[in-house]
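User: Hello! I'm new to structural biology and keep hearing that structure can be predicted from sequence alone. Could you demonstrate with MFS transporter? Please show me the input and the output so I can see what each looks like.

Assistant: Of course. The first part below is the input, the amino acid sequence of MFS transporter. The second part is the output, the predicted structure written as tokens.
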Amino acid sequence: MSTSSVAGRTAHRASAGSTTAPQEAGAARERPSARRHGAGFWLVAAVFVTAMAFSTVPTPLYPLYQAHDGFSTFTVTVVFAVYAVGVLVSLLLAGHVSDWTGRKRILLFALGLESVAAVLFLASPALPVLIAARLITGLGVGMLTAAATAHLHELHSVHRPGASPVRFEVVSTAANIGGLGFGPLIAGLLAEYLGAPLRVPYAVFAVLLLVGALAVALTPETVERPEVRPAYRPQRVSADHGDRAGYVAAAASGFASLAVFGLFTSLVPGFVGHTLHHPSRALAGLVVFAVFGAAAAAQVVTGRLGARTRQTVGLAAQAAGVVVLAVGVHAANLPVFLVGGITAGVGAGVLFKSAVGAVAGMAEPARRGEALAGLFLISYLGLALLPVGLGVASRSMSLTDALTWFTGVVLVLLAAVAALGRRRNTGR
């Protein structure tokens, strides 16, 4: 899956070292102090959390939108699909361009798109406006994920030249996954206790996004823009990033792990409210946060495990979790459902962290943004396709039966990931 970008290679042919930690003393003297890059690392991480949290703010609010416009569970998956389409289009068209235009420029543009979406959310709760806002949110997220991840890698490398990439791997994936969990939690609490539930959460995040833009403006740039801008071309997906088998295995892991996260950011709040008869918006947000929070915590705890051990832990935990989740669904038992979700979240978080770390490490500096964009593209296909398929299936069967089929599909995917990993290891 590569995004073979001639532009990225041309832009960095003379300055590939400027994209990551400069090894030569002369290059180091020309850059801002390592301390400034260290502060920038944490600022970008905080902005990453905020932007990803904003993308999941509607999650506990979907039942309210359904009540407002009277649309079905299937329509919720359509709204979710529109968001995923925005992410995928953005990754294809712009996920890699920060390799030559600069990380900060892309991050600021992405935050601007999310701010526009926040204004739309505030303007009206009508379904057409909701769809437009979700599409624009997806466009912003697609631009931001690859650029922010690459920026964190480079800021870490300058701040700690020669150090282990563990801190980068933990922070970047925890910011991504943890942010997705904070959005529903904050939105659920604000909607439950402050009134105006379809406006207050977006107003809060609109302010946070503006603060985030200021933080990005204060961070050092890690890419030198070429004097002559390379010819633009959309991203093409390939596995040509130093370790073809490793890239394929990482992409498969990302696809499988984000499929579970897609389930919890689309249909689960409605399932908790209707099938499990717990309509609290705060509870819906808490359930989603518990899953994503467990994923982020697992990423931190397993940070120093070897790659093969992490993959084994991730596969086992996600497989066990989706099985327990299915049991909780059939028993209509919230505690069992929650245990299954948390366990699946742990596994998915570990798998996704391993995938990001592997791709960031194998890609050459001049193509790191495009390599990560390709990974996120495949991963977000998993985020979109399986939950949307679940929504389509719910039109001809009960949501409980559809969730059972979802479990089976995820187990098959995990078996495929395990086979790819085993084949890669035995092929060495």
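User: So the tokens describe the shape?

Assistant: Right, they're a compact way of writing down the 3D structure. Reading them back into a model, for example: The chain has one domain: 33-220+239-426.
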